[in-house]
Design goal:
CATH topology of the largest domain: Neuraminidase
Number of helices: 1
Radius of gyration: 34 Å
CATH architecture of the largest domain: 6 Propeller
Largest sheet: 10 strands, antiparallel
Shape: elongated
Distance between the termini: 96 Å
Strand content: over 45%
Number of domains: 3
CATH class of the largest domain: Mainly Beta
Length: 510
């Protein structure tokens, strides 16, 4: 007696038999035709097997059955974890490539950026340092442990309020605040700039993180160079401020005025604010400008000494240091004092230079400050000593090495090189040092004009000197020239100052 199987059992049996069936031993390929113009059939490179239904593209076979699709060496036995769909229709949902991972920290919840730790676990990311970057996923669940994360796709969070638009207007970055995203590119020193996607709407983000990120450069220099005051004749000083765009050759333009006239005083910047001391003859006045905005200077505070003139300055993005000079009581001195550039206030004692000094050339790489050359008495006796300080740590200067010759000058720098130009009274020598390593200076080239104490400013590619000359009167110079830090060579003409002047001071910023 035969027992008839139910339809459900018959279906199961067929599935089991299908799974056990051997693969097609001998394909019988027929070409699949496409449609051309006017509906005419045209041949393609696509074939199908009449026996098993497999597809062939060229020499590559795609095996197809009800339970499996095999693309050569890339079998896809399950696609349950990949959800590719349109923009999510509900709050706190996503579409795209979602996986399960071990999350060790996440106090911010769904949408928090995550980076991968050394043990392979995920931790909330931030842009403060490369140690907490790059972002590789967004949290899809709150809390820690085994959690779903979005590796690539679209996430919707109704609490978001993104800006959409063309170009970089809609870009999303990892924030300096732990576990959050932002549309403001991180801009402080050593922060990480990593685009991780862009805003599709106010409440949805297409997450597509790049593993190539940028560490934000130090910015105590910048695109705009500023030249302060100076002497236009014997005992005739001006209070005018000029500016240039360092990346573009051309003449200087008027920026504004200091509150009083002076010559050979120190200038420095943090990349945003330019500061000079001492403004006026026999004063201790420190004044500042906002480099991005033309206008007159504003009171900053007071120096520790009432100076006559001949100061010099260097800085980091945080701290500015004024060094040396000639004080009203008579004589050169070796004092270094410092300010916090972002906050107005009086200067504070930092330490001492190894010898007394005025009219030296100072620069920095944002960490180490270099003080080179200068005059030690009224004879005058020229100095070839190079000293250095660590800007973040108060203390006395330490010997770095020597210039190629004893002289005065003005210095500029990028992250690597410090370059000083000037002569013993006057000259066209350019020396350079590698700021991070001590040692004697090396010849860089010559300036196009002989000069004593010009102004100096720079950005990361180009160093610029402005003004000075071989003395006061008809020999004053309005020449601005420049060098490229990457190429040892003579300087090249840049343009002219608004008026010829001597013993000016310079800085740069954005």
């Amino acid at each position: 007696m035969k027992i008839k199987q139910s339809k459900a059992k018959q279906s199961k049996a067929k599935q089991s038999k299908a799974k056990q069936e051997p693969e097609c031993k001998k394909h019988k390929w027929i070409p699949l035709a496409g449609k051309g113009k006017k509906g005419k059939k045209v041949p393609t490179a696509l074939f199908t097997c009449l026996k098993c239904g497999d597809l062939k593209v060229g020499t590559h076979t795609i095996k197809i059955s009800r339970y499996r699709m095999d693309m050569g060496e890339l079998p896809m036995n399950s696609i349950a974890g990949i959800k590719l769909m349109n923009q999510p229709s509900a709050d706190l949902t996503a579409s795209g490539l979602i996986m399960t991972a071990t999350v060790d920290t996440n106090a911010q919840g769904i949408g928090a950026p995550l980076y991968m730790a050394a043990n392979g676990h995920l931790i909330t990311a931030d842009a403060d340092t490369s140690a907490t970057s790059p972002c590789v996923a967004l949290a899809m669940e709150t809390g820690t442990g085994s959690k779903k994360v979005l590796v690539h796709g679209v996430l919707r969070v109704d609490a978001w309020n993104w800006t959409t638009g063309p170009g970089d207007a809609s870009l999303i970055y990892v924030s300096t605040n732990v576990g959050t995203l932002t549309q403001n590119q991180p801009g402080t020193t050593n922060t990480i700039i990593q685009p991780v996607g862009w805003a599709l709407t106010a409440d949805s983000v297409y997450f597509s993180p790049t593993m190539m990120y940028i560490t934000h450069d130090v910015t105590w220099y910048g695109e705009r160079g500023v030249i302060f005051a100076g002497a236009i004749a014997i005992w005739t000083e001006v209070n005018s401020i000029d500016y240039i765009t360092i990346s573009s050759l051309g003449n200087a333009a008027d920026f504004g005025d200091l509150s009083a006239t002076n010559r050979s005083f120190g200038a420095l910047s943090n990349g945003n604010r330019g500061v000079c001391a001492c403004v006026g003859m026999n004063t201790n006045v420190i004044e500042y400008i906002t480099i991005s905005t033309t206008g007159n200077s504003t009171d900053f505070g007071d120096a520790t000494y009432t100076q006559y003139t001949y100061r010099t300055g260097l800085s980091s993005t945080v701290r500015g240091c004024f060094a040396g000079g000639f004080y009203s009581g008579g004589g050169e001195y070796n004092v270094i004092e410092y300010i916090t550039i972002a906050s107005t206030g009086n200067a504070v004692d930092f330490g001492d230079i190894t010898t007394v000094m005025r009219e030296g050339g100072c620069c920095s790489n944002n960490t180490r400050g270099i003080l080179g050359g200068g005059i030690t008495d009224d004879t005058p006796t020229y100095r070839n000593i190079i000293d250095y300080i660590t800007i973040a740590s108060v203390g006395n200067a330490t010997d770095f090495g020597d210039l190629t010759s004893a002289r005065v000058g003005a210095a500029c720098s990028n992250n690597i090189l410090g370059v000083i130009s000037g002569g013993s009274g006057t000259g066209n020598i350019i020396d350079y040092v590698t700021i991070a390593t001590t040692g004697n200076a090396t010849d860089f080239g010559d300036t196009i004009v002989a000069r004593g104490v010009p102004a100096a400013c720079s950005h990361n590619i180009k160093g610029v000197w402005a003004g000075s000359g071989t003395g006061l009167g008809s020999s004053l110079s309005n020449v601005i020239d420049y060098i490229l830090f990457s190429t040892l060579s003579n300087s090249t003409d840049f343009g002219d100052l608004t008026v010829p002047r001597h013993m000016t001071a310079g800085c740069s910023g954005n």
